[in-house]
Specification:
Blueprint: H1 8-22, E1 30-36, H2 44-47, E2 52-61, E3 64-70, H3 75-105
Helix pairs in contact: 1-3
The structure holds zinc ion (ZN).
Length: about 110
């Protein structure tokens, strides 16, 4: 389909989608904070109720849960990648709905 045949709404969604899928990094996953012990015998977490807050990136792949520890210095980057994926997915959903509507209208 030519761009000129698309509704302004669809063109707008696709314009926002293009940079996300053309040159932005993205990944599908969820970020979760966990409280845990670090394992060092002399750390306060071994001796008290203190726990470290650790960030993990998680996903489910072929029914298997996968998790990856994310160091603090990588958090902003990974959050941006996760957001890019979600933004792209949301735009795809919006475009998809336009085609659902089109079929319902039978045009
Ligand atoms: Zn510790």
């Amino acid at each position: 389909m030519y761009r000129s045949q698309m509704s302004p709404q669809e063109r707008s969604f696709r314009s926002r989608l293009r940079p996300l899928i053309s040159y932005q990094e993205f990944l599908k996953g969820s970020l979760t904070l966990r409280k845990q012990r670090c394992g060092k015998p002399n750390c306060k977490c071994a001796k008290t109720r203190y726990r470290h807050l650790c960030l993990y990136l998680t996903r489910s792949r072929d029914g298997q849960a996968e998790q990856l520890f994310i160091p603090r210095d990588k958090e902003p980057l990974v959050r941006q990648w996760v957001k890019n994926y979600r933004d792209a997915q949301e735009l795809m959903e919006k475009i998809s709905s336009l085609y659902w509507d089109k079929l319902k209208r039978k045009d």
